[in-house]
Amino acid sequence: MSAPGARSVALRGAGQILRPPRVGLPWLRGADLAAQTLTGGDLGWSDGVLSEGPLRSADLELDVPGCAVVPGFVDCHTHLPFAGWRADEYAQRLAGVPYNEIAAGGGGIRASARALAAASDQQVLAQARDMAVEMLAAGTTTFEMKSGYGLSREGEIRALRLAAEFALSVPQTTLSTALLAHAVPDGYDAAGWMHEVGEMMGEVLDLGSVSALDIFVETIAFSVSDLAAMGALARAGGLMLRTHVEQFERLGSVPVALTAGARSVDHLSVASDDDVALLADAACAAVLLPAAEFLGAEHRAPGRVLADAGALVVLATDANPGTAPVVSMPVVIGLAARLYGLSPMETLAACTLNAAWTLGLEATLGSIEPGKRADVLVLDSPVESIAYRFGRNPVAVAFVGGDPVYVRDDWVDRLGVRS
Ligand code: NIG
Ligand code: FE
Fold first, then answer.
1. 179 CA: nearest ligand 1 atom
2. Sign (positive/negative) of CA torsion 264, 269, 274, 280?
3. Cα dist from 318 to 179, 278, 356, whole Å
4. Ligand 1 atom nearest to CA at 218
5. How many whole angstroms separate alpha carbon 389 and alpha carbon 344?
6. Which partner for 107 in 16, 102, 119, 241 could form a disulfide, CB atoms 3.0-4.6 Å apart?
7. Smallest Cα–Cα separation from 186: which of 159, 160, 155?
8. Domains in the chain and their CATH numbers?
9. Pocket of ligand 1 (CB under 6 A)
């Protein structure tokens, strides 16, 4: 959907417009978090690019009094596309069965791998599209998606191809990550599967759609030496390295991930003080996934301590059928505020510019500054309400590249556009 002829758009009289303290920052950490500004006023763009000052006139003019205007949310850690759900396992976990035990019994990642193998391409794409619609309505204008439920060479390549096809059918910007070491496939040990991963890299790179590799480092999955090996593969292939580390058991993955050049260390639920010290000034994102921690009754990442130390704190959904069947960034913001004690400014930076940096997109999106893409949300209430009115979705309009790609029903008449 787009507003007819709306090459330029002006939002008038916003209550709050969230801006970084200076233009051109790659990320927001330390003192820059609190130095973000929330000044009211007007915001405009032409041809999808944010303007230097307010536009005097525009094709589409929208009054937004009392509203907050923030960058579109960037969800930098999801496991889309996948097949089906695992509500039965959640019932088991509520009854006290640990994730590892469910996985050891053939559930967990293996259960989703069986579901993916059994589903047709059309079924997988339809489920993912439905989720992308929900994500957009909750303000996610960019998201990353991981493979990892293929659990065979052919299965992983199929998952990556499906991700590439899916990307063409959604209004959001997407990035594809090859999570090639998620669970050790049947018939292999970890070393044997890592050898296979090395063998399939040519095919993965030939797809041309993959921007990062990923690995799950855990006693039930892969080791820190496999992590170092995945880092070498990423370097050789010119891809970023993303990592699932320190989720359930403390294995000392963070220093290894940093040495391997990881762009991010994700989860960190059992991270140590030494890990915090290493991440304090690292060019590596600490991606926290509070929905997985809350729903799994997992350990809690040291979010407050990481932010105070100056780490590059990022928030994401971890949307997946096992640990986090959650797609809403406002829900994640509410959880992070309560579980870690992050301020509204800290939570917003963590799912906008900092998340954009995690994906290598910080030069073009993630903050409201002149010259950046007009990926912008109009929230119907101040930013403080996102966490406070927990579970409520405040998104009234979502613009991607300047176009109103989502308009909440009660705002349709104001925009003069229909979905
Ligand atoms: O990020 N930790 C590993 N991977 C996912 C869970 C995947 C699943 O249970 O299906 C995660 O939490
Ligand atoms: Fe994950």
1. 4
2. positive
3. 13, 23, 15
4. 2
5. 13
6. 102
7. 155
8. 8-71+366-415 (2.30.40.10), 74-358 (3.20.20.140)
9. 108-109, 112, 216, 244, 247, 292, 318, 320-323
The owner of tokens 């930098």 is 76
Distance 77 CA to ligand 1 centre (A): 11
Q: In three state form, how does the secondary structure of 140-172 look?
A: EEEEEEECCCCCCHHHHHHHHHHHHHHHCCCCC
In whole angstroms, what separates CA 414 from the centre of its chain?
A: 30
Nearest alpha carbon, ligand 1 atom 8: 322
Give a three-class secondary structure readout of 231-296: HHHHHHHCCEEEEEECCCCCCCHHHHHHHCCCCEEEECCCCCHHHHHHHCCCCCEEEECHHHHHHC
| Residue at 180: amino acid letter | L
Nearest ligand 1 atom to alpha carbon 77 = 1
User: Taking the model in full, what pTM does it have?
Assistant: 0.97
Q: Which residues surround ligand 2, an ion (CB under 5 A)?
A: 318
Averaged in consecutive runs of 10 residues, what is the pLDDT profile of the chain (419 residues)? 70 98 98 98 97 90 97 99 98 95 94 98 98 98 98 98 98 98 97 98 98 97 98 98 97 98 98 98 98 95 98 98 98 98 98 99 98 98 98 98 96 74
- DSSP one-letter code for 72: P
Contact by Cβ (8 Å): 284, 254: no
